[in-house]
Design brief:
There is one protein chain. Helices cover about 40% and strands about 0% of the residues. The chain has helices at about 1-10, 15-35, 55-65, 85-95, 115-125, 145-155, 160-165, 180-185.
Length: about 190
């Protein structure tokens, strides 16, 4: 039972606030270093990101850089899980990858807002679908899926020989997990000679 619970932790969703802060923190740190620091109050462009929240400036900076865009109703929904299609869109915006429309999965129609992002990510080998030919764009992205996508999109290739020589610091991550190497590489510093 404990092993099942631990496996479920790896498959938990990433939430908007957490993703915006963790992934974009190094980039946003550079932004704030140039623009006056975190103490500088950012303009709030999302009506559901209240002034005074610890994450407001991070979200504002990620939005200003063009990595996130929020929803048509002017919200960001910081407490909701990030979906697979939202995550792919953020990654391609971050890597400044030009997109092209196409249909890669039966459940991502060409007129869907994310179709260009999803098609381009498939074409570049950044994402894979499910065995049934679907992508499940509205499903929350898991930490394991996110680690794989970030590694591939940024050209980070896990060195299995190096990782095999490491002690896994995570009690909930077994070597049999499908994204073991991706998660280890994404969460540890591996120095190449």
């Amino acid at each position: 039972m404990e092993r099942v619970r631990k496996q479920q932790l790896l498959e938990q969703s990433i939430y908007g606030v957490i993703w915006s802060v963790i992934f974009f923190l190094p980039l946003i740190g550079e932004y704030f270093a140039v623009s006056g620091g975190l103490e500088k109050e950012s303009i709030n462009i999302f009506k559901d990101v209240a002034d005074g929240t610890w994450y407001k400036n991070y979200i504002a900076a990620a939005s200003e850089k063009g990595y996130i865009s929020g929803f048509e109703d002017g919200t960001f929904k910081p407490e909701e899980p990030v979906t697979r299609e939202q995550f792919v869109a953020m990654i391609l915006r971050y890597t400044k990858t030009s997109t092209e429309k196409g249909e890669a999965f039966s459940d991502v129609e060409i007129n869907r807002w994310s179709a260009g992002f999803v098609y381009t990510a498939v074409k570049l080998g950044i994402i894979l679908g499910y065995q049934d030919g679907t992508f499940k764009p509205e499903n929350p992205i898991t930490r394991a899926e996110a680690a794989r996508i970030v590694n591939v999109a940024t050209g980070r290739i896990p060195d299995k020989a190096v990782i095999d020589g490491m002690i896994c610091p995570y009690s909930d991550l077994s070597k049999s997990h499908w994204a073991y190497y991706e998660l280890m590489y994404a969460s540890t510093y591996v120095q190449k000679d």
